[in-house]
Design a protein that fits this description.
It contains ten helices and 22 strands. The chain is α+β, with helices and mostly antiparallel strands. It folds into two domains: 8-228, PmbA/TldD fold, CATH 3.30.2290; 237-479, no CATH class. Strands 1, 2, 3, 4, 5, 6 and 7 form a seven-stranded mixed beta sheet that branches. A hairpin with an 8-residue loop joins strand 12 (349-350) and strand 13 (359-360). Helix 3 packs parallel to helix 5. The protein is globular and about 70 Å long. The protein starts with 7 loop residues before the first helix and ends with a strand.
Length: 481
Amino acid sequence: MRAVTITPSALTHLVEVASSRGATYADARTVEREHEAVSVKDGAVESVTRTADRGLGFRVIHKGAWGFAATDRADDAALRGLVDEAFRRAEASASVQRRTVTLAPIDPQRGEYRTQFARDPFAVPLAERIDHLRAVDAASVGPNIKTRRSSIAAYRTRKHLVTSEGTDVSQEIVEAGAGLSVLAVKAGRKPAPRYDSRLVRQAGWEYVEHLDLVARARRYRDDAEATLDAPLATEKPTTLVFAPEFLALLVHESCGHPTEADRLLEHEVAFAGTTFMWPEDRGKLRYGSPHVSMTADATVPGGMGTFGWDDDGVPAMRTKLIDKGTFVGYLTSRETAGALGVPVAIGSARAEGWQHFPIVRMVNVSLDPGTTPYADLLRGVDSGLLMEAPASYSLDDKRQNFHFSTQSARVIRDGQLDGYLRGVAFQSLTPDFWGRCDLVADDWELHGFLSCAKGEPLQLMRVGHGAAHARFRDVPIEVRE
């Protein structure tokens, strides 16, 4: 890795040079990333990894078009070449693009943002991390458990953004988390996996301890063992109660993605698809029942989509996407808000790294909690299923039609959990599915996603989603053996 040392004055100089050459806007963004992870498989250390990279991304708007270039070098020649390359690309873009880039206005921003944590996850001795995972592994052992895997990871990102409009902000974001999986195998039965790789939070080592991975390992082991011998479900309309970790993915796929404003502007058609939620539908489209409200919030403590400023320099804020069942808002960048002629309601422009152009990405998009205790919600189910964790899933390119299956389906009888079923899956249209929600509990919890894929070239982004248990009536289920 080449050393990149860019001073704040050098960033300022770059945007000043761009302005003097005719750019109507310019920004320079340095990014440094670190990642450490350790994994244990079947009682033995499987891998220990450490990675790091750092570099500089540079954007200009010239002749109404974007030009972007990036480098991992810091010498004068490389920086001069960076400016030249950004202008060359802007010239090329201007010759073919259909609309002039217009940025929604924001006030210049200055300041620092740092993740608050009790213990730096990078400072935890490797031996302590391995001992922790070996205890988790031991708790995963069961008579039919054939594969056990667990991992702990830490991430650190430092960013500094300077723009030609006077913004100068720096951020240090620290994240920690874990992964856990078991696979139960028995002759004559379909293997039963139980896993979760979304146990991540913007936090320190204290979050790993909060997860209580040993207890979670025992629960996953018991779920997988019980699913092996469980009877097949019956295809019929059924009351479904979804656990927060399942709903987090449903919110991500069926609300987060279709409310990304670049989809309706056809920036993302080739790779990620479009949307079914169009500008004329705002305030009119019935997305779900009155129990369903969803909020995009970049200020949630611990969220993987939490920050001080996005990569446009827009300060963290929150906005409603769904209000009591009605579609009301989008996730925007300054460019997409400018193209739509609306103010920036939330800043959602983020890039995976220094070598990537910022695009519209989810922040923390969450199902708002209700006021009913989970136990009371469950007592309202005479016959139904608790869907604990998603397994396979697929969606159309508008995020309107989807199919999901579950790793673990618990039987609900007379308001109590009573056994397991195998093979449970369901298919629905987004408004029909959320329209069947008749109650949301108050036990809201936050989940993190490490690798939401989007863009060409592909970018993997961290996002967060919160949800509580929620109940859906008369959902037609399928059986997939």
